[in-house]
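User: Hey, my collaborator sent me this sequence without any context and asked if I could get a structure. I don't really work with proteins. Can you help?
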Amino acid sequence: MAFKIFRKNCCGLDVHKTWIYACIGITDTNGRTEYKQARFSSFSKGLKELADWLAKYRCFEVCMESSGKYWIPVFNILEKAGLFVTLAHPGETFDVAPFVDRRCKTPIGEIQAAIDGAVSSEQAVKLRQCLDHIDELEMHIEKVQQEILRLSDKYQAALDLVRTVPGFDKNPMTAIQILSEIGGDMSVFPTAKHLVSWAGCCPRNDQSAGKIKSTRISRAGSYFKPVLVQVASALTRSKDHPEITNRYRRIKARRGHKKAIIAVCRMLLTAIWHILSDLKPYTPDGFVEPRPAEKSKVLTTAQALSLLKQRRYVISDSAPVLN
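Assistant: No problem. I've predicted the 3D structure and written it out in structure-token form, which is a compact way to encode the shape of the chain:
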């Protein structure tokens, strides 16, 4: 399918922030079209070079899109050069300030420059409807949260204890979610290990004929475990709880990030079991208790060699020659 030629010599511009891409279409008397392409800087010097390049091919008709504000200097300079510039889809002034969320880190001026002329009045109406819908959903969420907080009043004592654990004191709903899963009565879990196993934060028992097939954690706690992982991930970046960050870094160096995060989850569950069993607030003393090394410790030759290899010593029969 052949396109009908309306202009024998014209140019189309693709205007960007720092560059302008130009393409001239020149059609001869036999209907054959030859294309000339070039790229120019969007600064004044580059725009003057663009005007000279168009004059070289005797192209006096230019068309470009008007999205954003980048077309304005191009239009001004080419119009002064005596060219006929067609501005496609003329943009409308659109204020983005009412639509920008308070959590957005991008400056409003930069957002304004990016969409000026690209959002029509009809699209603005749709954006307003979408934002109104988001506001309505947030209002419903807030009402549900208020009802949850009202129902949790009778468990306030247990919630206060859970909120003494690192990571559970920021959002009041986090402690409620934990307590709604495990309950406040720890007598149903004989030990902290039973709670950890119930939550799926320990290796599953997958072995046959004395051979361990897998050490992956179980699938238990599908609603409970994601909350623990989120809290643990946030705590690993905190400087306020060295008992957690030190353990995470130590295990991560040997076993990797995922296993270290699950180890932190086990720490949190163990702490929650103890504070709800003993009815005492969280204290890091149990995790940072000093463990002095034994004064005298005998290693076998194999153990000593293994220790040296772990510390990246190279063992050879002869000592290295120092220059």
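In plain terms: The domain at 9-88 is CATH 3.30.420.40 (Nucleotidyltransferase; domain 5). You can pass these tokens on to your collaborator as they are.
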